[in-house]
């Protein structure tokens, strides 16, 4: 249905992997948690999912996958070829020092390379090894964690799924970056809607954040 020619069947293989990996979530991320929260008010699944997907559109969440490929292409265009490790290291510092995040790196929970990144890397090595964009993604993986480890506040210097997914779509001719988060959404819908059914089945309670009193706030900031 994407219209991408697939004489080898490898794009279909990628889609199987892509849709499976992106449906997986650990409930605590923005799209999964928002879907759960809205669903917990007994809104129907359409409203709950659409709320979650609005969260997926944020650059710190799902949109990172297209931002990440944009960053990779920018590096490639800047250096005109696959840069050396030293050039890449310098460029990563420039990104950080300009107050931007290195997209595709870091995670709120994981403290290891995202297993979904590993699965995509294995796929890329098998089917896209000669692609310069994929090669650059692999090189970034060699260099960027060592840079991020030097920034004390960053808890997880390792790549997440978004660091690599776009390069594989790009390899097979899906070059419309704006569409990447749409694919992510289709897949995420499978995961969060399954969770909605379970939540409704076990009659899980309405979600709300913990409330605190003005007294508690005053005491906590030392103003009591
Ligand atoms: C995913 C992410 C939002 C997690 O944020 P978090 O839970 O606050 O992560 P941390 O506790 O490690 O963040 C501590 C600090 O390090 C910064 N940091 C984390 N990852 C970073 C990265 N890849 N590049 C630059 N700075 C980063 C955070 O912005 C934060 O800075 P601040 O205190 O000045 O606001 C964050 O790592 C990020 O923005 N990554 C890039 C975007 C991305 O890949 N998103 C997809 C996630 S699946």
Number of folding domains? Answer: 1
The average pLDDT is: 94
Mind telling me the C-alpha Rg?
20 Å
Q: What's the helical proportion of residues?
A: 55-70%
Unreliable segments (pLDDT under 50, ≥5 consecutive)?
Answer: none
Give the count of helical stretches. Answer: 10
Order of helices and strands: HHHHHHHHHH
Q: What is the CATH fold-level name?
A: Cytochrome p450-Terp, domain 2
Beta-strand share of residues: under 5%
The CATH architecture is Orthogonal Bundle
Report the count of strand segments: 0
Give the class-level CATH name. Answer: Mainly Alpha
Span from first to last CA?
63 Å
Shape: flat
Main beta sheet: none
Q: What hetero molecules are bound to the protein chains?
A: coenzyme A
How would you characterize the overall build of this protein?
The protein has 224 residues and is an all-alpha fold. It has one domain: Cytochrome p450-Terp, domain 2, CATH 1.10.230. It contains ten helices and no strands. Helix 2 (30-40) packs across helix 9, helix 4 (64-79) packs across helix 8 (162-171) and helix 5 (85-97) packs across helix 7. It is flat, with a radius of gyration of 20 Å. 30% of the residues are buried. Bound molecules: coenzyme A (COA). The site of coenzyme A has 18 residues, from loops. The site of coenzyme A (COA) has 18 residues, from loops.
């Amino acid at each position: 249905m994407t219209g991408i020619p697939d004489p080898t069947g490898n794009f279909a293989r990628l889609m199987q992997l892509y849709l499976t990996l992106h449906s997986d979530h650990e409930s605590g991320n923005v799209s999964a948690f928002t879907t759960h929260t809205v669903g917990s008010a007994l809104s129907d699944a359409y409203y709950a999912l659409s709320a979650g997907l609005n969260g997926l559109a944020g650059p710190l969440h799902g949109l990172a996958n297209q931002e990440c490929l944009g960053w990779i292409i920018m590096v490639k265009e800047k250096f005109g070829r696959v840069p050396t490790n030293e050039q890449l290291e310098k460029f990563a510092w420039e990104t950080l020092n300009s107050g931007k995040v290195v997209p595709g790196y870091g995670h709120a929970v994981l403290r290891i390379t995202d297993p979904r990144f590993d699965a995509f890397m294995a796929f890329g090595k098998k089917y896209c090894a000669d692609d310069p964009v994929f090669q650059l993604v692999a090189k970034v993986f060699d260099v960027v964690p060592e840079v991020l480890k030097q920034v004390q506040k960053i808890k997880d210097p390792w790549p997440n799924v978004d660091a690599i997914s776009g390069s594989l779509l790009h390899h097979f001719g899906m070059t419309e970056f704006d569409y990447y988060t749409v694919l992510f959404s289709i897949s995420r819908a499978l995961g969060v809607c399954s969770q909605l059914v379970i939540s409704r089945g076990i009659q899980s309670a309405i979600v709300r954040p913990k409330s605190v009193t003005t007294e508690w706030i005053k005491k906590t900031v030392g103003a009591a």
